[in-house]
Amino acid sequence: MKDIKSLDLNLLKALDALLDQRNVTRAAARLGVTQPAMSGMLTRLRDTFDDPLFVRAQRGIEPTERALALAIPLKQVLGEVQTLLQPPVFDPATATQRFTMASTDYAMRAIALPFLSTLKRLAPNIQVALLLVNDTQMLTQLERGVIDLALVSPEYTCPDLHARKLFDEHYVCVLREGHPLVREQADLTLDRFCELDHGLVSYTGGGFRGATDEALEKLGRQRRVTVSIKSFLIVLDLLRASDMVSVLPSRLVTGLEGLAVFEPPVSIPGYTNMAAWHERTHRDPAQRWLRQLLFDICFDCPPGHAAQDYAAAPR
């Protein structure tokens, strides 16, 4: 071969047809071209490989030794090209891909049981990395393939990303089971709510104010936020070890032992959970299957067993 840059893929298909048919007319019919066109391709093939390739015979044409030597590797090359043109097939049972998801520690807890346990059953060899989401770097991380999927609230999605709503979340007040309010079997009134020490989860860290405070201000009230924590999981331990109260997403605490849940005595806006991903993974079969599994689990599971959540503003 003189130069691969000068080789037309259609010439290889023509050579394959000539080797199979041993007849110019039949080879032309197989490729859907005219006999003169096939003869022209044979001329170009001879020039490309610097060999006659075929000689006239009593019943058509016979390949030269050079043409016969090309037959098997030619089939392999055409088969590999055809594979490139076919959509990739994804089999969860044998797949070994790695999937990276960005979320808060709250979302990590919420997806751990239903998503990862189901994934391990259906696709035992897939690796999943759970990273803490970084709002300022999320788009760049998705573009560069550092992460494949991010669990975010709507304000962090943008036109450059694909996004899908997962579910709406609401907030509850959480105390330890042995809290005096629980022992007294008393209601969590607005007065008592404001009197208690509050632990606030500040996603950005160091904040002592959230949507709960804004809701209280509309009523002319305020609460006492004495502890600000960046981690949802640590605040659960803090509540179990103190008489503090915290306003938390309902799906984080449903079914957890050692905690009591009350409806807030003030109306606190909830938030929407979204999944966001980049165009680069939008059509990938493995990514599509993993996303669909996440969506199915999210829709099928009751609160407390949902596949994913994202922490909204501090409450």
From TrEMBL:
Q: Which UniProt keywords apply?
A: DNA-binding, Transcription, Transcription regulation
**Which GO MF terms are attached to this record?**
DNA binding; DNA-binding transcription factor activity
The UniProt family comment states: Belongs to the LysR transcriptional regulatory family.
Give the organism, scientific name: Advenella kashmirensis W13003
Q: Report the protein name in the record.
A: Transcriptional regulator
Q: Which Pfam families match?
A: HTH_1, LysR_substrate
**By its UniProt entry, which InterPro entries does this protein fall under?**
LysR-type_TF, LysR_HTH_N, LysR_subst-bd, WH-like_DNA-bd_sf, WH_DNA-bd_sf
Keyword Transcription tagged: yes
| UniProt entry tagged with the keyword Transcription regulation | yes
Name the SUPFAM superfamilies on file.
Answer: Periplasmic binding protein-like II, Winged helix' DNA-binding domain
Residue ranges of domain HTH lysR-type in the record: 7-64
